[in-house]
Design goal:
alpha+beta; three-stranded antiparallel sheet
C-alpha cells in the first residue's frame, strides 16, 4: 500500500529495505496469512478460498488445503493479481520491529486494517462536521438542506 506523503515522516529512513526484507527474505514472497504468491495471478472464489497452481489444490483463507467439490460454477471463480505489502500489526508506523511487521496480500491487509479504516473514516467525518459547526452559518446550512 503506498504511503501518503503527509505520513512519510512516520516511517524509518530505510523502510524500503526493511519492507523488502520482510516480504521476500522472511516470508519467501508469499503472504504470511494465507500463503498466496507475490505477483502471480490466482483464481479465487471471493470468500478467501483460492487455487494454488503449484500444489494443484484449493486453499482456505488461512492457506490450508481445502476440499472443493467439482461443481463450482465458472461465474464464481475470479482472477486476481497478488501484491504483497508489509503491514504493521499494531497500525503504528513508528513501531518497525520485526515482530510487529508481517507480509500480507491485499486481501489479508484489507481484513487486518478494516477496523482501523472504519475508525479513520469516522474521525475524518467528525473533524469535518466540527469545522463546519465552527465556520459555517447555520442558517445557510439549513437552506442548503431544505433544497
Amino acid at each position: 500500500m503506498p504511503i501518503r506523503p503527509e505520513n512519510r515522516w512516520l516511517y524509518p529512513i530505510d523502510w524500503q529495505q526493511l519492507s523488502a526484507t520482510v516480504r521476500f527474505r522472511r516470508a519467501g514472497a508469499r503472504c504470511e496469512q494465507c500463503g498466496r504468491p507475490h505477483l502471480r495471478r490466482v483464481a479465487h472464489l471471493g470468500d478467501g478460498r483460492w487455487r494454488d497452481g503449484e500444489a494443484r489444490c484449493w486453499r482456505s483463507d488461512r492457506g490450508r488445503r481445502n476440499a472443493i467439490r467439482t461443481g463450482i460454477a465458472l461465474g464464481a471463480v475470479r482472477m486476481t493479481k497478488v501484491v504483497l505489502a508489509c503491514a504493521h500489526l499494531d497500525h503504528d508506523p513508528g513501531n518497525s520491529t520485526p515482530g510487529n511487521l508481517k507480509a500480507l496480500c491485499q486481501r489479508c491487509q484489507t481484513l487486518h486494517a478494516a477496523a482501523e479504516h472504519r475508525w479513520q473514516r469516522w474521525w475524518n467525518r467528525f473533524r469535518l462536521r466540527a469545522c463546519r459547526d465552527l465556520y459555517e452559518d447555520p442558517r445557510l446550512t439549513r437552506q442548503r438542506l431544505s433544497r
